[in-house]
Design a protein that fits this description.
The structure holds two protein chains of two kinds. Chain A contains four helices and twelve strands, in the order E-E-E-E-E-E-H-H-E-E-E-E-H-H-E-E. By secondary structure, chain A is an alpha+beta fold. Chain A has a single domain, classed as Glutamine Phosphoribosylpyrophosphate, subunit 1, domain 1, CATH 3.60.20. In chain A, the strands form three sheets. Chain A has a five-stranded antiparallel sheet, covered by helices on one side. In chain A, strand 11 and strand 12 form a beta hairpin. Chain B is α+β, with helices and mostly antiparallel strands. Chain B has one domain: Aminohydrolase, N-terminal nucleophile (Ntn) domain (Glutamine Phosphoribosylpyrophosphate, subunit 1, domain 1). Chain B has a five-stranded antiparallel sheet with strand order 8-1-2-9-10. A five-stranded antiparallel sheet of chain B has the order 3-4-5-6-7. In chain B, strand 3 and strand 4 form a beta hairpin. The chains are: A alpha+beta, B alpha+beta. Chain A: This is Proteasome subunit beta.
Chain lengths: 212, 244
Amino acid sequence: MSRFNPYNDNGGTVVAVAQGSRVVIGGDTRISNGYNILSRNYNKVTQLTSTTFIATSGQVTDAQALHKLLLAKVALYKHQHGNEPSLRALSKLLCVTLYSRRFFPYYTFNLLCGVDDDGQGKVFGYDAIGSFDELKYGAQGSGQQLSISILDNQMKGTNRTDSYSFNSDPVGLVKDVFNAIAERDIYTGDHVLIWDVSPQGINQSTFRLRSD
Amino acid sequence: MLKSPYDTDCITWSPQGRLFQIEYAMEAIKQGSLCVGLKSNDYAILATLNRAPSKLAEYQQKLYEIDEHIGLCFSGLTADGRLICKYLRTEALNYKYTHGTNINPQRLVGKLSDKAQIKTQRHSKRPYGVGCLVIGLDENGPHVYETSPDANFYEYYAVAIGARCQSAKTYLEKNYETFANLSKDELIIHAVKAVKSSAQSDVELNGRSVSVAIVGRDTPFKFLTSEEVEATLLHLGQAMEVEV
């Protein structure tokens, strides 16, 4: 007789790339359970303030509970301070929120991204219990290992002997990364929702992926 | 009001069936500065006359956002008012977290009244020392409510509370029947006029001493900026001169 397991991985991948004052966030729209697909049209990214987003992979119910909680905390912050929290403030808030569940964690792997007070685009990557670090680019989820290899190659110039040049279009890069992951990761596919965030505004787009 | 032998605490009735402590608490509202609330079919507006403790001080804020569809202002013991504001914000946020929708303003006001009632039936507590005006939006449109220390709440077309509110009430009584179809700007002008009618001649009316906020079907709760308030006051000042 097997014990009830509260955790379940619903698959999927999220990716974020920061460049200058801009950050591009992508999340695929597939939720799975084992070998079954539960939805091809699910959004894994939530906008928390006018300049910050949280992208979460892992267990969908925990991700929804976490996003709801953060939205309520942001609303409370706005009432108490009279303005929106900065990305920096939110990064710590997410950390302590995750750690408060240290002994029954949210099964969530998060990327917190946006434009900070200093006008720079930033990405913060988290583990399930709140350990976080500021990154230039990040990936979480079932396609993490596949995407990080490509991102390291394109953003840092690792594993190549030819002359390295920085990819000029982060949106194109994110699309390329998702196309590559969808080929090999069964849990990633269907569509990618992409947010292009900068101080000038937010541009949202949808990109089709393989549905198999 | 004369002193009475039955007014020591909340739990003592007078022979006439009155609770004097509650009635004394209602007097505290009249000491506070003016609050005005009014509505049309599409908008509800709150306007307050703010006080500063001295010439050196900033004007004290009395108008607060509770949620994107609800706003609050109060007259009386401002400390009580701020705590009430905190309570209402928490309740509205909890409701939104649990139900995924905005709380019905009447329910929220009802919760406040329930809390106020407890303070009228304990020997160890005192009633709230503020009357609150709440504007809120639900599926039927905008609403204006008044709460008071006696734990009642009432809905209004237009209302004024606080010091010298009778002048504002008289102005509103004369004009409220025309409010229903007014535009946002016309309604704001009525609100500021109501505040002006109660202000004594030595009180300075400017963008900081007068606060105005609005909520509507297509407008989440927002404050008018001090520049917008100044512009309305200026416009009214010129209009008043023309009338004379």
